[in-house]
Amino acid sequence: MASYKAFLKSGHPPTLFAAFLYFDFSFAVWVLNGAMGPFITEQFHLTQGQVGLMVSVPTLAGAFMRFPLGVLSQYIGRKKAAIVEMSAIIIALLYGFYFVKSFNDVLAMGVLLGIAGASFGVALSLGSGWFPPKYKGLAMGIAGAGNSGTALAALFAPRLATHFGWQHVYGFAAAMMLLPLLVMVLFAKEPPDIEHQSLSQHLKCLWEKDGWAFNFVYIITFGGFIGLATFLPSFYVKQFHVTKIQAGSLTVLATLTGSATRVVGGWFADRIGGITTLSVIFLIAIAGLFGLMAAPSLLATTLLFMLCFAALGAGNGATFQLVPLRWPITTAVAGGMIGEIGALGGGILPNLLGQSKQHTGSYRMGFIVYAALAFLILIMLRIVSRGWTSTWVGKGGRAISNPIEEPAMAAD
After folding, report:
1. pLDDT at residue 202 in the model
2. How far apart are CA 148 and CA 203, in angstroms?
3. Angstrom distance (rounded) from CA 287 to CA 370
4. Cα(154)–Cα(30) distance, rounded to whole angstroms?
5. Domain-located, residue 5
6. Is residue 138 part of a domain?
7. How far apart are CA 275 and CA 269, in angstroms?
8. What is the C-alpha to C-alpha distance for residues 399 and 270, in angstroms, rounded to an integer?
9. Which of 189, 213, 247 finishes a domain?
10. 169: domain CATH number?
């Protein structure tokens, strides 16, 4: 209790709370089309390939929008950038409420929903900006818990769509976004840890071997998390013929598991090392994917999805235990770029599953291909991490007591 009080006194809790709400509601909006996938599919008679495309468009758009929002936050401040983004989200949702009439309109709306997906870097930086280095990890974890917004969307969107129609859900979401917007305006304060990074500093991660190693890892952990979360409602309806509300409730079970284990993954990574933790997590995720190939019962499928989400969520936490150790000076910049590439990976799994179902009549091939991709990236991690443990990190990926200066990898 004493350490918790010390944590609260060390920073500005109202700003942290505002950042959490901002990220939570934004994340819910980001995955809204996925949560309403079964309703949209029914109205427009979509193929499974079209479903995969529909749910992946917001994910891809959000990944591309993270960079411009990050640049904007450096010029006008993180609080103002968050206010601008939430205002744009509300306008986008009103567009969906009034003007979405066809499948092409849904795809266009998916691009607009991507605005909400850009919130990651600003929310975490805003939430942790008032806290000293020894508490930044906890603050980022609290703000990052906003990825539980996937559960909010899966829980409420199907119920609202059943009673009012799926297009009206955009209107309800626009009204609900007023809550985090008002909290941000009234209670948040711009943190003092202002850092201005140049474009070359932001893109530096793209030219480094270590940067791409982390990018590939995050493509599986975060990309798999967001991709699976958006496709799951449609999967349940198509595979098991459950009601749309039941599909949403089952999705909530899985996504909440993944949100909760993000903190657990970081905790284990602190103690046994991020490399060791990620290695175990990848094996668990791959085992879960292989189990799903057998097309088991509804109960077994749900438990396997919960296992996969638990592994992927923990993988997100373990990845960002290592990032500050590799880039102690430019953690935010490197983390932002890794987050962007990882979010782009969120389009892989929905399209693999959709195309697999459409062309083979089963989701099995999609799970096989993704499991194979995860296994290849695990091998890559084990190979490249041999160099890490001899330079900037301890055995298994634990922090070393006397960290060396950030290594220059530009020549790699």
Report:
1. 60
2. 29
3. 12
4. 12
5. no
6. yes
7. 8
8. 7
9. 189
10. 1.20.1250.20
Q: Is 389 exposed, middle or buried (0-12, 13-18, 19+ CB in 10 A)?
A: middle
The reported pLDDT for the residue numbered 411 is 33
Output the pTM of the full model. 0.87
Between the CA of residue 238 and those of 158, 162, 163, 258, what are the distances in Å? 15, 17, 21, 23
91 and 162 share one domain: yes
| Contacts of 389 by beta carbon, 8 Å cutoff, 6+ apart | 275, 395, 396, 397
What pLDDT, on a 0 to 100 scale, did the predictor assign at position 201?
Answer: 63
Phi-psi region of 45 (alpha: psi -120 to 50; beta: other; left: phi over 0): left
Whether 149 and 265 map to the same domain: the answer is: no
Can you give the C-alpha Rg of the chain in angstroms?
20
Residue-level pLDDT at 205: 61
**Which amino acid makes up residue 397?**
G
**What is the domain extent for residue 284?**
201-399
Residue-level pLDDT at 223: 95
Helix ranges, 192-240 (H): 199-203, 209-240
Q: Which residue has the tokens 């088991």?
A: 296
Are both 335 and 312 inside the same structural domain?
yes
Residue appearing with tokens 């009204």: 175
Shared domain for 134 and 223, answered yes or no, is: no
Containing 117, the helix (H) or strand (E) segment is helix 103-117
Q: For tokens 């917007």, what's the residue?
A: 181
Q: Please tell me the predicted confidence (pLDDT) of residue 255.
A: 92
pLDDT at 412: 34
Q: Report yes or no on 170 lying in a domain.
A: yes
- Cα separation of 248 and 173, whole Å? 17
List of the chain residues with pLDDT < 70: 1-2, 133-134, 136-137, 193-199, 201-206, 295, 329-332, 401-412
Whether residue 93 is found in the same domain as residue 60 = yes
Per-residue pLDDT at 332: 63
Distances (CA, A) of 231 to 150, 314, 346, 347, 350: 11, 20, 10, 10, 6
Asked if 125 contacts 190 with a C-beta cutoff of 8 angstroms, the reply is no
Is 106 in the same domain as 55?
yes
pLDDT at 337: 81
289 closest CA partner among 267, 270, 308, 271 = 308
